[in-house]
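Re: that backbone. Tokens:
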């Protein structure tokens, strides 16, 4: 558009200058004026015609220039819009791919970790059907989030032999959880510690039925030891419970 204007401007200046020289001849008088008028009239007519036609052509070129600019701007705008749309689409696709990947990863984690976690919290308690303290201990484990399965058996000695629990470590019930045995009224924190640390032992045990242990009443004066029993049958103190205060 600017180029078209710059082309029209000098032509108009030339026409104005020529017309300024020819027009006065039409009103001139004196010797030779008629001859000069006959020459000036067609020149003026030619300049007028040329100006009109040139102006129309200039307007056409100017219009074409504007149209070209508009087309170029429109095409550029469409191109930018297309590029922007493509970028947005790619970004949306990336977000969708990320969300799908995250969802798949979460599902896979839930599929693999969930059952493993649930399996680690499954507990089987072998007990005498008439033992109330054994039932209380199993209920405490259930309340802590363990999936407790109770098996009432008449011969607990056979169960203890199956898991090779030393005679001096035996209690009134036997639980199995996470690949370990938990013998007797072991406190909850000791069971949680066992599953968190996963030491290389056969299990943990509290011999006998200490007063104040889990399932045996709430006695702040309770004092007893929890033993870690190795696979060879030897044992060592795993943790101790002492009177409070």
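Recovered sequence:
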């Amino acid at each position: 558009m600017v180029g078209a204007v710059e082309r029209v401007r000098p032509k108009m200046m030339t026409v104005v200058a020529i017309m300024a020289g020819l027009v006065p001849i039409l009103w001139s008088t004196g010797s030779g004026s008629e001859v000069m008028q006959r020459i000036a009239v067609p020149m003026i007519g030619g300049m007028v015609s040329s100006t009109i036609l040139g102006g129309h052509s200039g307007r056409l070129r100017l219009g074409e220039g504007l149209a070209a600019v508009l087309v170029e701007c429109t095409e550029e705008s469409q191109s930018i819009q297309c590029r922007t749309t493509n970028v947005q689409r790619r970004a949306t696709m990336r977000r969708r791919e990320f969300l799908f990947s995250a969802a798949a990863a979460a599902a896979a984690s839930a599929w693999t970790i969930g059952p493993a976690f649930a399996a680690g919290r499954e507990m089987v308690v072998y007990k005498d059907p008439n033992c109330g303290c054994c039932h209380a201990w199993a209920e405490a484990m259930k309340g802590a989030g363990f999936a407790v399965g109770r098996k009432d058996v008449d011969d607990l000695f056979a169960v203890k032999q199956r898991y090779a629990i030393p005679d001096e470590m035996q209690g009134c019930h036997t639980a199995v959880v996470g690949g370990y045995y938990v013998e007797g009224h072991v406190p909850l924190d000791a069971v949680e510690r066992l599953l968190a640390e996963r030491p290389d032992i056969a299990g943990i045990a509290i011999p006998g039925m200490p007063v104040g242990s889990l399932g045996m009443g709430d006695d702040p004066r309770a004092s007893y030891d929890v033993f870690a029993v190795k696979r060879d049958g030897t044992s060592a103190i795993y943790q101790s419970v002492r009177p409070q205060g």
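The helical segments are 2-26, 33-120, 132-143, 156-162, 188-197. The first helix runs from residue 2 to 26.
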